[in-house]
């Protein structure tokens, strides 16, 4: 089953069938001249390439379930040539799935003649990603603007439970996408449908099961600022086997999945649950030290840091162990599940209540709680309940993670906690609603020659601390300073000194000495913007439209307070007014306080986020709010010579 893409959220917006002109699906190698001559997508004019059609047919043989798929793509320009780099994922481990009858070719028009160049078998690579996942990689020849590429294959599985999911949408606009299913009467499936536009075709069999569904003129979905995985947003149909009725050589059986069943299976799996009690070499030394610590928090922090500092992550997110925890510990290298099961094991041995939690990273996609399947997960962390309202989620793969801060790439999705001892398995939403702060204090003198000299102190908490420490230690001081300047070439930073760089429990403090050329100033006027070191970057929501929900991950808060001493002989000519602005649902707030007293101008900005997820339906208001906020952040102060 093509579960690699199974992460969509069940959507309530399923429209009724709507008659449309159905584009023609042509046999492999047959093509209309108009498709070769077309120069742009009719419904997305700026597209670099377009899927002309994507047709899938699912049927059953005596021994297999088969998906036959035929895809045809039009290349409009040089930027669209990346669409000819095709990867076909499948579950190749243990011959779970396999691909047959793969054909691929490039179609061009030369002086009115159709030329077809087949993909040589030497340009088709069967690539193993990890123990379970593989992919076929195709390199198409002679691809240029105007080309059409197409490929066709069958993907087979021996399990009736592996009915393929179907994604109508992709990063390319799609003229037509169709899935047809021919299901034996004895098999009963459940469909979870996420479709937000009218159907081109919607037909079902006598049992109400989908026999053919199609969409036409499907817009592309591409990366937008602060979006979750692009796969979370695709229109799709997800399918699960519910039951097999008697009469087809089988007794009646219920195959309906539940999170309880999945948890039980994972708890008994050799490469997961069987690892929980595997002893680690030298663990008694760690546990003996833990006994000397007074609080559970100290014990959790110590064990977490011991594993984090001992192990090297091999950059693989996997939901199972590969070498096993004991062997990985001895080798000092392991995948995400191996490393985090070590954390769980040591916490358990230390008497700390903790559970492994199966999770999906942000890039892999959000877990759909209405669609129980282990394939949605791609990693394991350690879940530690603290009290009825507080919990930790520990991931020791990243050297900069903190034990008491849920990793950013695991936020706003569901995880499955594994309580093997009590045979209890709960699907749990993981979030962090606590405000995260960046506090900036500036004291500066404005000089009559149009320069500013000053000091700034930036205190970064939680995720902001993690990001800054990682940036500094990964990129070095020179690049870190360039990032602080945010492209302002008039800003010169002469020194940066850090406090608490290696103390996780305290905010990272940056003490900065700087000077700034106040461009545009002359002998009579001085101009400056009091928006230094805000660290928000440019406005991320400049686009007039938004196709996906916004997911900030966490609630960031910025406090920037600056005191600016005026030069002798100058007075204010224009001063921004104090102001306040809030979203209608209070999800974002902005305040600006401006005061002048005894030759010092004080400007204080407060920007607070109270929701980390915002829906695309509210984007018009979000867009307008950010536009006004950035305008206010960029308002100048003007000083005039007295």
UniProtKB/TrEMBL annotation:
<feature type="signal peptide">
    <location>
        <begin position="1"/>
        <end position="19"/>
    </location>
</feature>
<feature type="domain" description="DUF3857">
    <location>
        <begin position="66"/>
        <end position="218"/>
    </location>
</feature>
<keyword id="KW-0732">Signal</keyword>
<dbReference type="Pfam" id="PF12969">
    <property type="entry name" value="DUF3857"/>
</dbReference>
<protein>
    <submittedName>
        <fullName>DUF3857 domain-containing protein</fullName>
    </submittedName>
</protein>
<dbReference type="InterPro" id="IPR024618">
    <property type="entry name" value="DUF3857"/>
</dbReference>
